[in-house]
User: Which sequence fits this backbone?
């Protein structure tokens, strides 16, 4: 006789679904991701995933919003924790790279930003991107040029993770990683066992 599963509180179950969804959406993108794969990874039924969120679209939006919230929280903490001797940009870069510990999060963010054409997801993607830009401009004190360069590097970081270039044994991949991550290259190696 099997032991009955312990029922998780709703908040824990929601977080479990969103963490699994970030991994699956990060791996397959919005279109190809399947709610049954998310349910399996979360260790619950597909019916419970749908009942919790209503649709795959709503689940993707909640997952993307969770990732953007994590980026914002990481950036707020990096800015607040910087003293006058530290470069805020370096702290923000390290905070962004550490978000890769949440499997699929940065690639889910990349998928979100490619859905600007989607009638429902597009406005959320634009608002989310501008939320991050606002933190860089208003809290970190970056100029518009510095903020756009930082965002471009962030998109490159997400692309590298999406392509899994950090796991490639190729001299140009290693060069690209070093040029992109600079002082955070060791952190990427630690995160991915390189």
Assistant:
């Amino acid at each position: 006789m099997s032991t009955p599963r312990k029922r998780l509180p709703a908040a824990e179950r929601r977080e479990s679904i969103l963490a699994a969804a970030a991994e699956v959406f990060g791996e397959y993108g919005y279109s190809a991701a399947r709610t049954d794969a998310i349910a399996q990874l979360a260790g619950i039924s597909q019916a419970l995933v749908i009942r919790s969120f209503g649709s795959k679209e709503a689940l993707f939006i909640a997952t993307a919003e969770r990732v953007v919230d994590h980026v914002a929280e990481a950036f707020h903490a990096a800015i607040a924790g910087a003293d006058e001797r530290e470069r805020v940009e370096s702290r923000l870069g390290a905070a962004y790279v550490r978000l890769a510990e949440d499997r699929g999060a940065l690639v889910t963010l990349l998928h979100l930003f490619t859905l600007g054409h989607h009638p429902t997801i597009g406005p959320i993607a634009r608002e989310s991107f501008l939320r991050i830009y606002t933190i860089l401009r208003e809290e970190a004190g970056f100029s518009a040029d510095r903020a756009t360069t930082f965002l471009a590097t962030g998109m490159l970081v997400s692309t590298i993770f999406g392509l899994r270039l950090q796991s490639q044994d190729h001299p140009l991949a290693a060069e690209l990683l070093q040029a992109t991550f600079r002082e955070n290259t060791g952190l990427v190696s630690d995160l991915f066992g390189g």
